[in-house]
Amino acid sequence: MPMKMKVYLASVCVLALTGFSTLAQQQKMLSIIDTTYVPVANEIPVFPNYDHKYQVRLESIQKMVPLTYNEHVQKYIDIYAGRKEMMGKMLGLSEYYFPIFEAALKSQDIPEEIKYLPIIESSMNPHAVSRVGATGLWQFMFATAKGYGLSINSYVDERKDPLQASNAAAAYFKDAYDELGDWLLALAAYNCGRGNVNRAIAKADSRDFWEIRKYLPMETRNYVPAFIAAVYVMNYSSDHEIKAQKSTFLQNTDIIQVNRTVSLASLAGALNIDLDQLSNLNPSFKKKIVNGTEESPKCVILPKVNLASFTQVYNLLNDEANTKKQVVLASNKGSGVHEIVEANKPSIFYHKVKTGQNLSVIADKYNVEVQDLKVWNNLKSSSILPGQRLKIYHHVDSKDVVDPIRS
């Protein structure tokens, strides 16, 4: 075989292998199985698979949020339409969560379509935690959550509360839209912050998301197309052979306000239901204890029950609240009776850092948040040293009470 022919064949083989490798990498990127974070899809400069029916379908369901159809959106339609089990689960969960989201969004005049956002944020899992610490259905960071009135302490993390977190998300979108004047820009800001969006607007000299997109962080560039794709797939699931999976959540629930400390176990007992069932409805209570007060009552979601069961709950929350609580200390062999110290009264003590310990280990030890430790000790970073003393605020439960005479 002539030398030129050998060189030509070798070149063709190299090009073929290169093309196959590129295609394989693209397919690999499009088959990411992570359902908590927005998957990353390669940028493709051409749009060879434009399909007019997707544009028509998106236009038919568009309300206030622009549902643009382009190559970026098509990539995420392919991804989410391919995740049939995941999207089937989203359809099932939507029957429980969407009415909650819709009510919160409506209260702030936010487009109803924003209810689809927790699909790409958390897969509608209230316990979802991102790699950077964003938590809950709406994936709030600690500082943002605090800024929008969500409580985060040793007993509760309202980022996991469907009601409170949805109200905070609606408030954020109201502020973002008031500042940016565009719903796609408000969505981008929810992911990367209003500062990044404003800087991208300045660089592009445009307020069109698709114009400023290249100046945004990579995750945010994909975030808006992923949102549009999720809206599409949820509305056209049957066209992609996606079937709703039955949710374990009860559809009929009631909400009560609790202004005292009570365990979920006590409430479950009064209702004669399984504790896990009640805990799933109220994922924000870390210790399965509702720490309500007169000044700051807590909302508790209960399954709809008959009048007799509701009466038992009423008696639990009122009779015990008006009864002086007493405890017989084991050290007195039953002979001494003392009042329990005020429930949830904070006390302070210090932890001496040991070699090998970090903030996460110490937070787990005392059932508090890493961010709590940082705030209590004015820490600028997560670095700590052996021998360092850390201030811990501890809420005293009745089991922690000691005999003031014999201690």
Task: Give keywords.
disordered N terminus, Lysozyme, 8 strands, two-stranded antiparallel sheet, mainly alpha, disordered C terminus, globular, two-stranded antiparallel ribbon, 407 residues, 4 domains
Write up this protein.
This protein has 407 residues and is mainly alpha-helical. It folds into 4 domains: 30 residues; 189 residues, Orthogonal Bundle (Lysozyme), CATH 1.10.530.10; 71 residues, no CATH class; 62 residues, Roll (Membrane-bound Lytic Murein Transglycosylase D, Chain A). Helix content is 47%, strand content 9%. It has 16 helices and 8 strands. The protein has a two-stranded antiparallel ribbon. A two-stranded antiparallel sheet has the order 2-3. Strand 5 and strand 6 form a beta hairpin. The longest helix has 28 residues. The termini are far apart.
Strand order within the widest beta sheet:
1-4
Low-confidence stretches: 2-36, 320-345, 395-407
Q: Helix/strand/pairing class, anyone?
A: mainly alpha
Number of helices: 16
Overall outline: globular
Question: What is the CATH fold-level name of the largest domain?
Answer: Lysozyme
Gyration radius, in Å: 27 Å
Number of domains: 4
CATH uppermost class of the largest domain: Mainly Alpha
Helix content: 40-55%
Residue-averaged pLDDT: 80
Reported CATH architecture of the largest domain: Orthogonal Bundle
> H/E order of the elements?
HHHHHHHHHHHEEHHEEHEEEHHE
Query: Major sheet, described briefly?
Result: 2 strands, antiparallel
Assembly state of the chains shown:
single chain
Number of DSSP-assigned strands: 8
